[in-house]
Amino acid sequence: MDLPSSPLWSWYVFADKWVHYDAALSSRLEDAFAAGSEPHVDAQLGPSGTKYAINVLTMEQVNKLTNYSRFIRREATAASPGDTRWEWDAGGGRWLPYAEQARQQLEIAFKASWPSTVLYMSDTPYIIRFAEMVQENTHTGFLRKIRGPGTSVVPGQMTATTQGAVPAHIMPRPGPARHQRMRIHAPLQARADAAHTERLTFTSHEGQIDFASYTDWRLLRPTEYDKDEDCPITCCPFGDDPEDPVVKLRCGCKFNKSTIERALLVKPQCPLCSFHFALPGAMPSGSLVVARDSEPCEGHEDAATWVLIYSFPSGIQGPQHPAPGEPYHGTERQCFIPDTQAGNRTVQLLKEAFLRGITFKIGTSVTTGRPNTVTWNIHHKTSRGGGAQRYGWPDPSYHDRCAAECAALGLMMNDDGTFMDYPVAPSDGAGAGGGTAPSHGSDA
C-alpha cells in the first residue's frame, strides 16, 4: 500500500476503525508534534463545529463540552523523517525493529525532545519514555527496553506490574473527569475494584509433558500384544524394541510410545477413537489479569463488567508449535464480559481454559494474515458495545457458543461450577467411540 506524501493524522472510532483528519488539521498536528513545545491543538470538527482539544503528547482528542475522549495517532508517510532504526527488546538477546509507522513517530518525538510519546500497536497503547528508554504496555504495565540512534539503554531488569495491581494510564491533563465510554482498549483506572482483581500466568511446557500421568497409559509386556500387529499411526509392526515400548492408553487403544507422544503434542486426543485427554495446551507463555470494572457493557447497564487482559510476549516456537525454532509475534488483548450469572460462569470457564493453555495458539491471524503470531483459539468479546457484528455486546448467544468452543477443546463445566473430569475408559474394545462424556460426581 502506497504511503501518503503529506502528514496524516487519525482519530479512533470503534473496533479498530480509524478516521483521518482533513489535510489542514493534520498539518497543524504535525507541526505541533515536530515542534516539541506546546502539545495542545484546538479544533472545530463536524457540521456543527464541535470544539475539541487535541493533545499530541498523550495522543488523545477531548470534546470540550462533554469531556468525551478518543485516541488519536500519526500515520506513516512517504516523506519519511530519516532512515534511522528503532528497536525493542524481544528477549534472549534479540532486538526487533518497530514498524514504519511507529518508527517515524519515535524519530519525530525524539528529535522534538518530547519526554514521551504514545504508540498504538495492535490496538494497544504503549507509552515510550525516552529518559529511561523503555516501552510500557498500558494494559499490563509490562516494560521492555528500546533503543534508537544516539540513545543508550538503561540497565536493569524490566518487569511486569505486581500481582493484583492495576496499571496506571497515561497521565491526564488537570481538569474534570472525562467520560471513558468509548475507551474500550484503555487500561482500568479508578473504576477497577482491587478486591476483585486476579492475575494468572501460564508457562509453556515446551514439549516436556509427563504423558503417562495425563493419559494413565500402561506399558505393555511383550506377552500382552502381538508384535506383528501394526501401530494404528505408523502402520508398521509394533515390534519388541525395549527402547520404544507399546503403551495402552486409558481409552484402551495401543501405540508405540514415541509415536503417540508426537501425536498428542499436536492434538490431545487419541488418534484412533478421539478420546480426549486433559493435556496442557500448546499456548505460549503469557499472563491474564481479570478485573472487575464498574462501567457496564451495552445491554447490561445494570451490571458491572469483568475485564480480561491477556498478554503474550514474542518468542521462539517450541516443539509443540507449528514451526519449531522460528520466532512468533506476541499480542495483547482486552476483553469484556458482563458481571451477570451467565457472565460469571463464562469468566470461570475462560480462566480455566487459560490455565490449561487452550485459549490462544500460534498460527496465522485471520484479520491481518500475519503468520507465526499468537491468535485466538476461543472467541472473546473485545468490545463493550456494537453487538455481535463488532465483537461486542449485546449478544445473547455468546455464553452458549463460548461453552461449546471450550467443550470442543475438552473443557466442560458442571452445573455447580466444578469442571468435568475425564471418564475412565471402558474395557478393551469398548473405547472405540469414546470421548469426553461427563463423569458425574467427580471434580477436576
Strand order of the largest sheet: 2-1-6-5-4-3
Number of strands: 23
Q: What share of residues is helical? A: 10-25%
> How much of the residues is beta strand, in percent?
25-35%
Distance separating the two termini: 51 Å
- Model regions low in confidence, pLDDT < 50 over at least 5 residues: 154-192, 423-444
Order of helices and strands: EEHEEEEEEHEEEEEHEEEHEEEEEHEEH
Report the sheet with the most strands, covering strand number, pairing sense and barrel closure.
Answer: 6 strands, antiparallel
Blueprint of the fold:
Elements: E1 9-14, E2 17-20, H1 23-35, E3 40-45, E4 50-55, E5 60-63, E6 69-74, E7 87-91, E8 94-97, H2 100-111, E9 116-121, E10 124-129, E11 134-137, E12 143-147, E13 193-202, H3 211-215, E14 218-219, E15 246-248, E16 254-256, H4 257-266, E17 286-293, E18 305-312, E19 315-316, E20 327-328, E21 331-338, H5 341-355, E22 360-363, E23 373-376, H6 398-408
Helix pairs in contact: 5-6
Textual characterization of the structure:
With 444 residues, this protein is of the alpha+beta class. The protein is 15% helix and 26% strand. The protein has six helices and 23 strands. It has helices at residues 23-35, 100-111, 211-215, 257-266, 341-355, 398-408, and strands at 9-14, 17-20, 40-45, 50-55, 60-63, 69-74, 87-91, 94-97, 116-121, 124-129, 134-137, 143-147, 193-202, 218-219, 246-248, 254-256, 286-293, 305-312, 315-316, 327-328, 331-338, 360-363, 373-376. The strands form six sheets. The protein has a six-stranded antiparallel β-sheet with strand order 2-1-6-5-4-3. Strands 8-7-12-11-10-9 form a six-stranded antiparallel β-sheet, covered by helices on one side. Strand 3 (40-45) and strand 4 form a beta hairpin. Helix 5 runs parallel beside helix 6 (398-408). It is elongated. Residues 154-192 and 423-444 have low confidence and may be disordered.
